[in-house]
Design a protein that fits this description.
This protein has 393 residues and is mainly α. The protein has helices at 4-10, 25-33, 50-62, 76-84, 98-108, 133-143, 153-157, 159-163, 175-181, 191-206, 218-245, 263-278, 297-311, 327-338, 346-365, 372-381; strands spanning 17-20, 38-42, 66-70, 89-92, 145-148. Helix 12 (263-278) runs parallel beside helix 13 (297-311) and helix 12 runs antiparallel to helix 15.
């Protein structure tokens, strides 16, 4: 079960996080009341003892607000102790390399993902109540955040490898330390700093790991939120344009739940349904296919219900079988049957369609080769636009 923050991140949603630099419990509670999604306790620049930190975590929990901690470094035993308080994640500043980022992953995650010491009776584990140790370890690995902060030119230079780590959730930029790393403390408009921030942003955005940038006024925050939304909308528009240009997009149902696994077989299965519905005389004496031979479970069920209606002396129409399908399924089947299909040489066309379905079923059920149309689609995805050269060729 994912926590709300993880679900929001997976949807590409906007998270509001407040950096807490004082030990007042009321500040944490007020932040939650104003809609802050996550509290980050800044234990890098400000002192928080263990008792204060765990009380702040409790205050966030009571209000349903997530809580992370920024620690000075990726020291494993310290991170393990803080995670045992029940925090949702760890932010480490000045991560300079892939190796340092992996050290953070190992400190936050339990085996087999990481190397964190395991104790199933801590506050994070509800003191051993309500779930098994195995379930706690699994949930912790699924829901905990790993946040390496990029604040040096070395981190910028190794950003590709850092972003390639599956367990890194997002990579915030530390602009102040970044200026110092380039030898120009406080000069945020230095071309090297501007270019470094742009590089990290663009590469992180490409893999949906951008976030956690700091803004000191409502105006700058609003400006950056609008900028990020515009970038996201442009990206989504380009993705939609590419999908529209792809020939495979015209072969697939709109609903993801009805997607075809074998396009070649599914197109033949659609043809069978259209022929049988439009001309009852094409029905063979015995069913030529079994339902499990259909690559699309929906088309297989439709074929079975039509055949049962014919055998019972009823009109084999989809409308008469509507009780067996959901509204979404009926919409798709209606669209399939409305597509053009010539009845000229209908017997031969039906035989050809049946042979294709049987051949593909033998491949699929017998562990044969993959659908060539899907393979061609994957190859198409590697092209740039239409008619462009393939990458790496």
């Amino acid at each position: 079960m994912k926590n709300p923050i993880r679900e929001k991140l997976d949807r590409g949603g906007l998270l509001l996080c407040m950096m807490l630099r004082q030990s007042d419990m009321a500040a944490a509670e007020i932040a939650a009341q104003y809609g802050i999604d996550m509290l980050c306790i800044d234990n890098e620049h400000y002192p928080f003892d263990e008792e204060t930190m765990i009380d702040l975590v409790r205050a966030a929990d009571v209000r349903g607000m997530a809580c992370a901690v920024r620690v000075p470094n990726a020291e494993p035993t310290r991170i393990a102790q803080i995670m045992d308080y029940g925090v949702d994640g760890i932010l480490v500043p000045s991560v300079d390399s892939y190796e340092e980022a992996m050290q953070l992953v190992n400190a936050v995650k339990y085996a087999p993902v990481g190397e964190r010491g395991f104790c199933p009776i801590t506050r994070a584990a509800s003191y051993g109540n309500g779930m098994t140790p195995e379930e706690f370890a699994r949930r912790s690995n699924e829901n905990s955040f790993v946040v390496p902060q990029i604040e040096t030119k070395e981190g910028v230079e190794d950003i590709d490898r850092i972003l390639a780590i599956p367990q890194t959730d997002w990579v915030p930029i530390g602009p102040s330390d970044l200026t110092a790393s380039y030898g120009c403390p406080g000069k945020y408009d230095d071309p090297r700093v501007v270019n470094a921030i742009k590089t990290v942003r663009e590469k992180a955005l490409a893999v949906r790991k951008i976030g956690w940038e700091m803004y000191h006024t409502p105006e700058t925050m609003a400006q950056e939120i609008n900028r990020a939304l515009k970038i996201r909308l442009r990206k989504e528009k380009k993705q939609q344009e590419r999908r529209d240009l792809s020939p495979a997009s015209q072969l697939q149902p709109r609903s993801r739940g009805l997607r075809y696994e074998n396009i070649r077989s599914a197109r033949a299965e659609e043809g069978i349904l259209r022929l049988l519905i439009r001309d009852e005389s094409l029905f063979p004496e015995e069913p030529p296919l079994r339902e499990e031979q259909f690559s699309s479970p929906l088309l297989g069920r439709a074929f079975t219900t039509l055949w049962q209606a014919k055998a019972a002396g009823r009109v084999p129409s989809l409308a008469a079988q509507a009780e067996f399908f959901s509204q979404e399924e009926m919409n798709h089947l209606t669209g399939v049957c409305q597509q053009p299909e010539s009845l000229r040489n209908g017997q031969q066309a039906l035989a050809d369609y049946i042979r294709i379905v049987q051949t593909e079923a033998e491949k699929r059920l017998g562990g044969g080769t993959a659908d060539p149309l899907l393979a061609a689609t994957e190859k198409y995805k590697d092209k740039k636009g239409t008619g462009g050269k393939q990458h790496g060729k």
